[in-house]
Design goal:
By secondary structure, this protein is of the alpha/beta class. It is 36% helix and 19% strand.
Length: 370
Amino acid sequence: MNKKQLSESDICDKFIRPAMVAAGWNGMDQLYREFPLRAGCVVVRGHKAQRDKSTVLRADYALFHKPDIPLAVLEAKDNKHAVGAGMWQAINYAELLDVPFAFTSNGDGFVFRDATLADGVLERNLALDEFPSPQELWQRYCAWKGWTDEVQRVAAFDYSPSKTPRYYQLNAINRTVEAIASGQNRALLVMATGTGKTYTAFQIIWRLWKSKTKKRILYLADRNILIDQTMVNFPFVRRTGQQIDRIIKPLYLAQDDPTRIHDSWRSVGGQGEATAQALRIAFACAVPDCPPLEGSKAYPAYQEIRDDLLSAGVEVVLANDEASVVAFAGAIDRDARQTPSFRAGKESADAAGVLGAVSAASAAARCTAG
């Protein structure tokens, strides 16, 4: 095989990815091909607007310790280029993801740039079979950060199952969680309108709360809609003793992967993968009150998702059908939902779980399916 005749994509598939997998990297949740960094500039001409494709940034490979905890980037080139030809791009991508490790490859080997200078060497050449394992890079990363075992545990704690954060959201969330886990009591995040401040705050709250770093968190906002946006991200539950018997999670039928509602079950219940039988007993799904119109382009997707949930025995109700939501949750006093105190997740026991469920469903009712 003449490597010079292979495209960059062929080099990735035949040489680079197999070398990383052989080193112990999991192709499902540690290696991400064409990882998006910047969507590109929007160019407006008259009444039309479109992305300038020349300004789109994607890393050939992003390497993660676990989902949403980045470690390194890799820039690939075809074999007509030198092995280190893409290093300037890799360095730029590594800075955007706030990671110290960058790799380049043309299929013959790797150039490894370690900005931690753990052994005093900035760049070195590696053979294809010398690619570092995930454990080795993670240990180097933690040593460079100077983390204690407890800080490492919190900093590596799982995100709430959701959409993939943008690179700057990852940086904001990970840096804030790391700082608080290290004992810092104050942190200020400044983010522009439309950059996902509510989502970022939610993920910080989730990770600090679920890792038991913080037991109680006060969330303040200047508008009710901002509170609602955050609350619908939490799965609301009702417990009988230590046993979860009801879960209500609003489902946005336009989200990338609606099956992620199963992840919410795992994150709340800690019961492992939920089966259809478990969902049949313990799960309600509140969908937006304004589904796509029959005959629209979005309607077939809506119908398919709804039918799949129903066939699995998952109860599906419209978010504004408060009677059905309250009936499922087993509420006795419907007026109790007006109580201004809500508790989410594992703290939402008995009536509080019902309050949270109704609040989440009500918030979802104001959203439309895209």
